[in-house]
Amino acid sequence: MNDARSDFAIETQRLSRFYGDRYALRDLTLAVPRGGVHALVGRNGAGKTTLLRVLLGFVGPSGGTSRVLGEDSATLSAEVRGRIAYGTEEHALPGWMTVASLRALHARTYPRWDEGAYGEVARRFHLPDARRVSHLSNGQRAGLALALALAQSPDILLLDDPTLGLDPVARQTFVETLLFVGKRDETTVIYSSHDLDEVERVADDVIILVDGGLAAFAPPDQIHARISAWILDDLPEGCAIPGLLQARNIEGQTQIVVLDQGADFGSRLEALGARGLTPWPLGFDRAINAFLSGYGTRRDS
Amino acid sequence: MRPLLEAEILRFRTAALAGAAAHAAILGAIGTFGDLFTASGESVVLGIVCYALLGLLLGVYQVGSYRRLGAFSYLIHRPLAPARILLALTGAAAVLLSFVALLPLLVAAVIFPTDTRNLLVAPLVLGICLAFYLIGVFLVLNPSRARFAALLVPGVLLLGDVSTGGAFLTIGGVLLWLWILAAAAFKPDLSTHLDRPLPISALALPTQLVLLKGLSLALVFIYSLGVAASEVGWRNIPAFGWNDHFPEDTLHRLEYLSGGEALASALRRAGLNPQFDANAAFELSPGHREPQRRGQLMIHDRGHTFNDQARSLRFTFSHDLMLFTGRVRRTGQAAGWLGPGGYAEGELPRIRFEEVPEVVDGHHLVSLRRVYSVSGRLAVAPVFEAPANEAIVAVVFPEAGIEPAAVLTDRALHILAPRRLAIPFEGDVRNLSRAIVAPREGELLVLFIFGAESDQDGAPASQTLGLVDRAGHYRKVAEMPLRQGPPAWMRHRSVLLAPALAFATEAALRRPLPNPSLAVVLGAVLLSLISAALTGFVARRRRLASGWAWSLAALLAGLPGFLTFLLLTPRAEPPRMPLGR
Fold first, then answer.
1. Which of A117, A153, B67, B219 has its CA 20 to 30 A from that of B102?
2. Which positions in chain B touch A63 (Cβ < 8 Å)?
3. What is the pTM of this model?
4. DSSP B352-405
5. What is the pLDDT of residues B203-212, one digit of tens each?
6. CA distance B197 to chain A (A)
7. All structural domains of chain B with their residue ranges
């Protein structure tokens, strides 16, 4: 088995993908270890969907390489395909089939089919066997897609923004299922999402993509710890703030968010002439938002 | 693979049941109120179009529904190789189409008495349905601008007039060809073009042929416009009478003249008196059709039914019996047979037709070597029998029901009245355009015009004038070459545009090979070199690794080769920034 030689479920080396004049992935080097839930975070157009599609072999890379379970993703064998489950935001399933017939089809298609896992997820989403897929609600369709994916007993589960458009209850059920069923099987879950609260709760690691490149890959608390926010009364004209991600004026005061500035940041800024400096608690979602909005600009400048 | 195949069959089960019922009802209605297996050529073509559309719609809808819903990733991402997924879909389509198209046809062939050969129609229909199903799949999946060229693949292979066995080989070849295309298009990344040599060649060939035909037609249009403008000026082009402007002594002018006018023109050119009895003149044009053979497919049937108005009987030729079998028109009840010995009832006649006859003008039967007349009492009498090494290509009847005046075989013109006479002609009957006969003061004037295949210059264009004197002796009076109207580059436009394709097409159709002048050959070589160079240049700019292969193809296929390259290859996606940081 190819994948026995690798500790990583997914490896990319300088992976690039262009669509005409525009790049979607740029020089992306990534190694995702086996097991755990890894959240893929980035702004629209950052390359999340393209990365997942390259990993599945749906689009070929323009440069570099990508390997999934030890195989080149552009030429995945049927056997490895069977060990990768994939879900999209549309939860595109054949609408003409009933839930039961679709379950039967998948049970006969996938050699590692786990009826227990299917049943557990199906119960959580109250999936009616006799109903056509096209007649299911959006949440039920998402649940069916997740049930089918998890019952494959996949080594890797790739989910592209699976909770988009779901109501809060369905979203909650989906995330809980992912946590309790997905983690139990030691499956490597990579899922992209814009819901940062959900990411903080679910993910073991966060992969942040900015402009098609890798900006960060670490556990949520580690990334959170690298980002700090401060409020200050006055800042001298022309003063360059190191590691600045975001700056805003609120009621005469300036709020700044900075990256990788350590505990002595306050004293260093005061030495530059800043006055009234106070640390400001920053939640995970706002920290990542500031990171996403400021990282590309900071890097380019 | 099997679960997917079964799921796809179940998916369309209701539509398949409805389709099969409708098909059976239509066949039943035709079989009850008409004759199902002796349909006219137009009806057969309409039927083929319907079956082709059925296959095409199934392919487009079945695979298109996965693509339309964004579910193609769902379809292709499973523990099966893409080719096996396509095989499952195609297998399901084959089962469904067998149920909808093949089964009702087989049932109809059993219910309505017909020749054994007609049982073969059903599997051929299934083959046609499947061929167009694969075309539908390819059209849905391939992003190339030239993907519609796949529609021409069946046409490319069906150019020839094939026998029964050949039809199965042909449809097998078509299915294999289309499978190569569909399997190459059925891949995870639908945005990429075909990238392997075999499927690219399978799509490039029909594309090149279509482009060759299109460019050739464009040249004819431009040339014709230029001729018209030079004759009457640009403003008067709508009033230009084309046939008046062909130069004298050209084949094209003779083709526009009536038989009498053409004969008068030949007499004048030979320096003879152009007076003759124009009202009694007649002409024969070879049909250039394949002779009818025993056991042939019904699509090749011609004149297979004979109607006896007096008894209200309808006779249909049976290849199994080699006799016409009669039925009462209103009731469909069996009513005897019609053979070379005439009408018979009760016992099956022993004397049968040796060749498959064609009913002509409602009173005559014409087979490969024989002409029979059928009287009002259904008595059949032989009228003409060609020598053993000759095959009849045309018969002229002065009026319906009157005995034939002349028979043209592939070697001679046989005059039947007022006395029998055989006039052999030199040259290939396929190149014979017309034979014109006219009486003059007890003699017969005979004019053979050759050049039907001279457009490619592989065969000469000429006219041979002869005279049958009062004693019945034939002598050749004059043999006059005909000039070609358009210039050499126009006549050899196919060679000029795509030399290898032009020669290959003529060879495939078993026609004389082109024999172009040195100037045309040099022009063709120059154009091919320019096409190959342009292809190489663009391929280099597009960073295509297969540029040399495309250049070689353009060298052989000329301008259509270059245009095909432009249509089938993607524009490169060069990196817009250095990859390293």
1. B67
2. 575, 579
3. 0.81
4. --SS--EEETTTEEE-SSEEEEE-TT--EEEEEE--TT--EEEEE-SSTTSPPS
5. 888 889 889 9
6. 18
7. 2-192, 209-240+489-568, 247-291+392-484, 292-390
